[in-house]
Amino acid sequence: MKFADRADIYISSGRGGDGCASFRRELYVPNGGPDGGDGGKGGDLIFVVDEGMNTLADFRHKRKYAAGNGEPGRKRRCHGANGADMVIKVPPGTIVKDKETGKVILDMSNKKEPVVLLRGGRGGKGNQHYATSTMQAPKYAQPGQKAKELFVTLELKVIADVGLVGFPNVGKSTFLSRVTNARPKIANYHFTTLNPNLGVVDLAEGNGFVIADIPGIIEGASEGIGLGYEFLRHIERTKVNIHIVDAASVEGRDPIADIHSIMNELNAYNPEIAKRPQVIAANKIDVMSEEERETAITLLKEEFEPEGFEVFPISAVTGEGVNELLWRVNQLLKELPQETTEFETEYFIDDQDDPEEQILVYYNEKDGLYDVEGPRIQRMLGYTNLESERGFNFFQKFLKENGILEELERLGIQEGDTVRLYELQFDYYK
Question: Of the candidates 148, 141, 145, 154, which has an alpha carbon nearest to the alpha carbon of residue 119?
Fold first, then answer.
């Protein structure tokens, strides 16, 4: 059965209920005033991580997810009921992308709390709100705000510290079963492993890491040949990659050519992956003579150590050399940032069609700061990583495209003045 790590679905928040236009009809009150109630708010579309899920298989059978609509207001100032929220559970490591552009909307890898992706429409106001001294019987009630809808692609990128890469049948599954509690099925067929098998390497004194056997890569995988795309996306989060090669050339493969082929595929798919720390596990030394071992290892070291790849002769069958390799990988991981790689938001779901969600820009005389406020500002700050260059560029683009910088200049801001967006403060410079 194919591993389910991608799904296209339709998502929608709920529409706001319409406000009610009605008038009091009571005995002895011939001209009752307006008493139309407000419409209910539409339900939110919410994503939440479910640690118990590990594939996107559930999304094969259901492709449409819509929150409930708000009910319309009723007479006698009765408020319409709010629409029910729609909560979508996804496995850790899921990325939500806009289907049309392929841009990242949301990465759920580090999200501990539910994330409201599409907010329900505002309920319309009843006609009771529109009575004035000159118009005491308003027949107008505000319609509810429209729902927000989107076609999105869910992608699952396995969260593992270390990725095992290599051509089919070089011993990755045997290695994984030796060093972890994972028990992958092993057989001598190309593309035997159809799931990215995860296992935990448990070293002494609390040391260890999560390792994933990324299924056999073939040439052309980066162009989608075979199951290339589906497997390569799982390596995007790994911090260190172990290249396992058949140093004994049991099937007639050239280990040096294999590593070059895999590096070419990684470079073609995502050059950032190829720049990460890499180590080479020269496997199957248990079937080689001492002289054959020395020759094979020397050739690998001469070819790849100048590029910064360390070479470790191992036998996944007997365990020879495996501990040295694992401890070196453990050390490399400690030298790298500990957070899970998170993909930056590239597609911002805007709410500018809601007149009640305007961005407020003003000078706060009491604090001597320029304040920028509004629900859209809060949401943008909620899922933008300002620590990264890409996230900061997105932030600057948001300020410019929404007229915030222009409004600040209209208010007379000078270079060096401080701008405050809730908890975030920064000095203004052109």
Answer: 148
Burial group, residue 26, by CB count within 10 angstroms (0-12, 13-18, 19+)? exposed
Given the DSSP bridges, would you call strands 94-98 and 104-107 parallel, antiparallel or unpaired?
antiparallel
Across the strands, what pairs with 218?
A: none
Phi and psi angles of residue 269, each rounded to the nearest 5 degrees, phi first: -80, -50
Alpha-carbon gap, residue 406 to 401, rounded angstroms: 9
- Token code pair at residue 397: 């683009």
Q: What is the mean pLDDT of residues 118-135?
A: 79
Residue at token pair 């597609």: 347
> Rounded CA gap, 171 and 354, in Å?
57
pLDDT digit string, tens, across residues 30-80: 566 778 788 999 999 999 988 877 778 788 888 999 999 999 888 888 888
9: which DSSP letter?
Answer: E
Helices 322-334, 172-179: crossing angle, 10 deg rounding: 80
**Residue 226: which pLDDT band, with cuts at 50, 70 and 90?**
very low
Six-digit token string for 7: 């799904």
**Contact at 8 Å (CB) between 201 and 180?**
yes
Tokens of residue 385, six digits? 């990583």
Sheet (strand 45-49) strand order: 86-90, 45-49, 115-118
Cα pseudo-dihedral 396, 113, 111, 51, rounded to 10: -160
